Amino acid sequence: MKQYLDLCTHIIENGTVKEDRTGTGTISVFGYQMRYDLQNGFPLMTTKKTAFRLIATELLWFLKGDTNIRTLIHDKNPIWDEWGFERWVNSDEYSGPDMTDFGRRCLKDEEFDAIYKVEMANYKKRIIEDDEFAAKYGDLGPIYGKQWRSWSTGDNVIDQISALITGIKTNPDSRRHLVTAWNPSEVSDMALPPCHAMFQFYVAEGKLSCQLYQRSADVFLGVPFNIASYALLVHLIAQECNLAVGEFIHTLGDAHIYLNHMDQVKEQLSRTPKQLPTLHLHMGDKSIFDLSIDDLEIEGYDPHPRIKAPIAV
Predict the structure, then answer these.
(1) Is 161 in a helix, a strand, or coil?
(2) Which residue positions form the known binding site for dUMP?
(3) Are 244 and 206 within 8 A, CB to CB?
(4) What domains, with CATH codes, occur in the chain?
(5) Model-wide pTM > 0.90
(6) What does the pLDDT average to over 45-71?
């Protein structure tokens, strides 16, 4: 994963300190590209332990067209918890303790952090147990799954992923194998506008490659997940289309390190990358839309220990 470590170094050495939506502050560069040959192993970060199960269950959630975190909570996947919780505590129906700016306050105030954890646990419990509450406060709006599988244009609904697979199978040399999550008419209704905004597939010599354009890249927390998620997507689409895997090309717009992640990034840069693991798919006759985490296996993953850092909401 030298490509990723080179990105971190490039941002530290060449980045501009900027304000951001969360109020945390970043050091940022604009425009950067990394390439991963998927024939050389599965690009799951080895300089810090990265949870493949969370990456995979999130991607399967997208592929099913789901936008409600109830599914992720069932799968013990907390990736989107904060954005669902934020919608709840900012609603007129919420009457509990003040949760304003809960992400940063948890880091500075142990007493508040304890209160937050109770409120978050109560929120997740209600999502699981209360259908009406889950429908209202578990849904994150028309985020990735909605745009990938049911993009609405008036009376028409477009399943971009199914169309992508059909296109690759029937016209592999087409230059139109694209999927976009950036729907300008619905961005304001999303809990978080799509960071990984558009991707394109390419077939050559029996191999399937993918280039992702990511408009906003949280380099320490988000990008390692994005790399593995889209590498997994290439494997799944390739299997569905009877192709080998080629490259994953990761093109970044605003690539940034949050200022409260700098110590963690420097710790990661001090570590030596290890051999990449191998991905095994046990799909059988299943479509990629019917897979579960039990159908995916990572072998030979021996990373350095996890490095914790706060998420900016």
Answers:
(1) helix
(2) 21, 175-176, 215-218, 226, 256-258
(3) yes
(4) 2-67+142-299 (3.30.572.10), 81-139 (no CATH)
(5) yes
(6) 97
